[in-house]
C-alpha cells in the first residue's frame, strides 16, 4: 500500500483570515490597540479591559483567538500558514497538562528524537506550558535552524527531558494520490495562498478520477480568500460563507469559481481539529448537499480574525466577525457534525469503501470475510462451467480500503473453481474489497452476467 498522508503542520485552529494591515510608529502601540479593539472587536468591550496597561493584557480580556504578537511571533505565525517553518516537526493541540502532540512528521527532528503522538510537552527550555495556547508553544519551540531546544514531556505517564535540534521543515499545502478504484484523494493541510493553485494542479493530474475524497482533518484554517477559492472547486456551490460583524447587516460572500471542478461522488473528511476555514467549507458543502462528511464533529471555531500590523513588526490579531453557512447555520462553539460518524483514523477507509460500493452497486454483495490471515488465498466457486481460457486476473480487483489496488494472479482449478492469490502479503488490521468483474465467459461464449464484491478484514 502506498503510504497514507497525515497532518504535517502545527495546529492552526487559532487562525482564519488575514486582512489589510494598518501601521503606526510606536514601540508599544497601546493607544492604537485600544482604538482598534473598541472599533472592530466582534463584541462590545468594557472600559476595564480597554484601560489595561499592555497589548497582551488587553487581548487577555478578549476571546482566545485575539492576541497581540511580537514581531518574531507574527513572522512565525505567517510562515506556518504558508507551510514554511523551522521547528521539530510536530502537530500540536492544547490539553489540561500542557500541549499534546497529535502527530509527528516521519523523519523529522521530533521523530528522530523519539517523540510520538500522545506525548505531552509540559515545558520548553524550562518554561511551563500550563494553560498556554498552542501559539505560545510554537513560538518557544521554533527558533534558528540548527539550534537545540529542550523539551520536558510526559510519555505514557513517565516524565523525561529530551533535547532536539531544530531544522527547516518542508511541508506541502496540498498532497494527493490516486486510491484504488480510480478515486482521487486530496489532503489540504492549510488554506494558504497557493492552496487553490495546488488543488487545481492535482485535480488536473487526476482528471480521469471518477470521484474524490477531500481531507480536511487537522486543518485549522488559513486565509479568507483561499477558503473562497477552494469552495469554487465544488460544483453547484455558489457561495462561500455568511459573515456577521458588530453593528452590520450579515453579508454573504461568493465562492471564487475555478477552471477545473471536482466530479462524481465527493466526500469530505473532518475531525475535532478541523477548524475555521475547514469548518466554513464543511458546513457549506453539507448544507448544499455537495459532499458527504465523514469523521467527527469539528472544533467549533466560527470566528474570523483580522490582522493589524505595526511599524515595529508586531501585530494585533483581533476577532472581528463570526461566520455562518451561507444560509445562516452557526459554527462557533458548535462545530460541524459529520454525516457519517467514524472511528478516529478510519475516515479514509470508510469513505473509500462507500465510493467503491457506489461504483459497483450493481454487483452482488457477498457477506464480509472477517479476521482472515494476511496470506489469504481466495477460492471462488462458480455456478456455471466457464471457458478456462477467459479465467485470468484481468477480471479481478483487490483494493485496500484507504489505499491502492493489490496485484493478484489466478490459478484455475477447473471450469467452476479458481484461486485468487495476492502477489504480496496483505496488511494486518486492514480491510480490502475484492471485486470480480463480469468478464469471464462460459463454454458457449456468453459473458457472466453479474459481478461480485466482497469486503475482507485482515487479523
Q: In one word, what is the shape?
A: elongated
CATH architectural grouping of the largest domain = Alpha-Beta Complex
CATH superfamily of the largest domain: 2-enoyl-CoA Hydratase, Chain A, domain 1
Number of domains: 3
**Terminal Cα separation, in Å?**
17 Å
Helix content: 10-25%
Structural account:
With 459 residues, the chain is an alpha+beta fold. It is 19% helix and 32% strand. It has helices spanning 30-40, 47-50, 55-60, 71-81, 109-112, 134-141, 195-205, 224-231, 277-288, 347-359; strands at residues 67-69, 84-87, 90-94, 99-104, 120-124, 127-128, 148-155, 158-165, 167-170, 174-179, 183-188, 211-215, 239-245, 251-254, 266-270, 292-295, 303-309, 315-324, 340-341, 364-372, 378-381, 396-400, 405-406, 408-414, 417-422, 431-436, 452-458. The strands form six sheets. Strands 3, 4, 5, 6, 7 and 8 form a six-stranded antiparallel sheet that branches. It has a six-stranded mixed sheet with strand order 10-11-12-15-16-19, sandwiched between helices. Helix 8 (224-231) packs parallel to helix 9 (277-288).
Notable traits:
single chain, 459 residues, alpha+beta, Pdz3 Domain, 2-enoyl-CoA Hydratase, Chain A, domain 1, Immunoglobulin-like, six-stranded antiparallel β-sheet, six-stranded mixed β-sheet, 27 strands, elongated, disordered N terminus
Amino acid at each position: 500500500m502506498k503510504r497514507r498522508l497525515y497532518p504535517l503542520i502545527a495546529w492552526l485552529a487559532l487562525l482564519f483570515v488575514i486582512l489589510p494591515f494598518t501601521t503606526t510608529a510606536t514601540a508599544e502601540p497601546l493607544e492604537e490597540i485600544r482604538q482598534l479593539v473598541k472599533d472592530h472587536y466582534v463584541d462590545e468591550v468594557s472600559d476595564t479591559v480597554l484601560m489595561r496597561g499592555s497589548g497582551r493584557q488587553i487581548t487577555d480580556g478578549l476571546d482566545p483567538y485575539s492576541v497581540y504578537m511580537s514581531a518574531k511571533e507574527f513572522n512565525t505565525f505567517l510562515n506556518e500558514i504558508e507551510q514554511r517553518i523551522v521547528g521539530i516537526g510536530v502537530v500540536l493541540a492544547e490539553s489540561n497538562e500542557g500541549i499534546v502532540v497529535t502527530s509527528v512528521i516521519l523523519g523529522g527532528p521530533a521523530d528522530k528524537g523519539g517523540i510520538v503522538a500522545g506525548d505531552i510537552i509540559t515545558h520548553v527550555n524550562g518554561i511551563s506550558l500550563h494553560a498556554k495556547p498552542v501559539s505560545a508553544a510554537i513560538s518557544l519551540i521554533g527558533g534558528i535552524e540548527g539550534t537545540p531546544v529542550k523539551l520536558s514531556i510526559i510519555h505514557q505517564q513517565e516524565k523525561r527531558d529530551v533535547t532536539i535540534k531544530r531544522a527547516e521543515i518542508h511541508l506541502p499545502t496540498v498532497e494527493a494520490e490516486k486510491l484504488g478504484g480510480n478515486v482521487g484523494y486530496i489532503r489540504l493541510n492549510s488554506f494558504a495562498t497557493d492552496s487553490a493553485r495546488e488543488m487545481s494542479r492535482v485535480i488536473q493530474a487526476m482528471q480521469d478520477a471518477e470521484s474524490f475524497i477531500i481531507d480536511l482533518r487537522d486543518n485549522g484554517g488559513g486565509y479568507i480568500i483561499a477558503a473562497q477559492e477552494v469552495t469554487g472547486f465544488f460544483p453547484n456551490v455558489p457561495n462561500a460563507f455568511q459573515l456577521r460583524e458588530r453593528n452590520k447587516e450579515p453579508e454573504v460572500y461568493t465562492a471564487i469559481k475555478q477552471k477545473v471542478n471536482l466530479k462524481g461522488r465527493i466526500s469530505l473528511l473532518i475531525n475535532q481539529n478541523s477548524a475555521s476555514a475547514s469548518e466554513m467549507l464543511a458546513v457549506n458543502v453539507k448544507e448544499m448537499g455537495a459532499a458527504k462528511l465523514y469523521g467527527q464533529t469539528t472544533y467549533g471555531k466560527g470566528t474570523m480574525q483580522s490582522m493589524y500590523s505595526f511599524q515595529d513588526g508586531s501585530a494585533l490579531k483581533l476577532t472581528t466577525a463570526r461566520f455562518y453557512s451561507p444560509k445562516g447555520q452557526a459554527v462557533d462553539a458548535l462545530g460541524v457534525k459529520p454525516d457519517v460518524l467514524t472511528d478516529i483514523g478510519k475516515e479514509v477507509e470508510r469513505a473509500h469503501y462507500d465510493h467503491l460500493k457506489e461504483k459497483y452497486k450493481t454487483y452482488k454483495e457477498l457477506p464480509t470475510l472477517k479476521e482472515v490471515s494476511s496470506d489469504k488465498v481466495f477460492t471462488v466457486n462458480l455456478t456455471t462451467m466457464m471457458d478456462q481460457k477467459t479465467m485470468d486476473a484481468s477480471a479481478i480487483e483487490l483494493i485496500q480500503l484507504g489505499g491502492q489496488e493489490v496485484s493478484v494472479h489466478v490459478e484455475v482449478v477447473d471450469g467452476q473453481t479458481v484461486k485468487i492469490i495476492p502477489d504480496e502479503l496483505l496488511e494486518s488490521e486492514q480491510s480490502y474489497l475484492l471485486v470480480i468483474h463480469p468478464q469471464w465467459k462460459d463454454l458457449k461464449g456468453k459473458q457472466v452476467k453479474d459481478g461480485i464484491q466482497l469486503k475482507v478484514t485482515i487479523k
